[in-house]
UniProtKB/TrEMBL annotation:
PANTHER family: COPPER HOMEOSTASIS PROTEIN CUTC (PTHR12598), COPPER HOMEOSTASIS PROTEIN CUTC HOMOLOG (PTHR12598:SF0). Belongs to the CutC family. This is Copper homeostasis protein cutC homolog. It holds the Pfam family CutC. GO terms for molecular function: copper ion binding. It comes from Streptomyces populi. InterPro entries: CutC-like, CutC-like_dom_sf. It comes from the Bacteria. The lineage of its organism: Bacteria, Bacillati, Actinomycetota, Actinomycetes, Kitasatosporales.
């Protein structure tokens, strides 16, 4: 049995090379996306199956077909459900999603329909929470949805630098209604943020660009991931 890690480290993977390097560096889980120019969209089934065959750590697959936080109306939701069905048929069993309505509240109709298609699979509500008009209300509206076990958040649309006080405050509410899901910190996250976040009891972290010394045009570096792993295990 592998030694228990001090915290969960999730790394964005765009393809097999990223995935293999991230696992080698000590990632616990991967978030699979394509098109980071649009902040991460749903990857192809072929990308998922290639990565699934190459690594043995959990994979969370993005369900998002266009930039922004709109589900795209009824046609968009239909397309998202089809994508979820195809990915689940290929073996995917963990997902990432999150949609807001025009008022900045959760698009409950869209989210509930997609979650129903996931049939109990675990999922993350992603950084749409950072754009919500009312974070607390959003959490409480989503509290009873099956499978929701994580919020990916920077605490602010601008990133962790601005969001630190919110993250610390939300960590202190763990266990309250709407605050049972784990907080996974991501979005402008740096190594120097970790001491304050860890002191607040936060234990899940998400990196993308920080795992790529050459930027988004370059691959994930196992060495860069290992630096984060070491920092979290220290």
């Amino acid at each position: 049995m592998s030694e228990r890690k001090s915290a969960v480290l999730e790394v964005i993977a765009l393809g097999v090379e990223d995935a293999v390097a991230a696992q080698a560096g000590g990632a616990d889980r991967l978030e699979l996306v394509t098109d980071m120019a649009a902040d991460g969209l749903t990857p192809s089934v072929e990308t998922f199956t290639g990565i699934r065959a190459s690594v043995d750590i959990p994979l969370r697959v993005m369900l998002r077909l266009s930039d922004g936080f709109s589900a795209g109306g009824a046609k968009g939701v239909d397309a998202l459900v089809r994508a979820a069905d195809e990915l689940r048929e290929a073996g995917a069993d963990e997902f990432v999603l999150g949609f807001l309505d025009e008022h900045g509240g959760p698009d409950l109709a869209a989210v509930e329909r997609i979650v129903a298609a996931l049939d109990g699979d675990r999922w993350t509500f992603h950084r749409a929470v950072d754009r919500a008009a009312d974070r607390d209300a959003l959490r409480k509206q989503l509290a009873d949805l099956p499978g929701l076990d994580t919020y990916l958040t920077a605490g602010s649309p601008a990133g962790v630098d601005d969001g630190l006080p919110v993250l610390v405050a939300e960590a202190a509410r763990r266990g309250e209604p709407g605050y049972e899901p784990r907080i996974m910190v991501g979005g402008g996250l740096r190594l120097d943020h970790l001491p304050e976040l860890r002191a607040a009891g936060l234990d899940a972290f998400h990196i993308g660009g920080a795992a790529r010394p050459e930027g988004w045009t370059g691959p994930v570096s196992a060495e860069a991931v290992r630096e984060w792993r070491t920092a979290l295990d220290g």
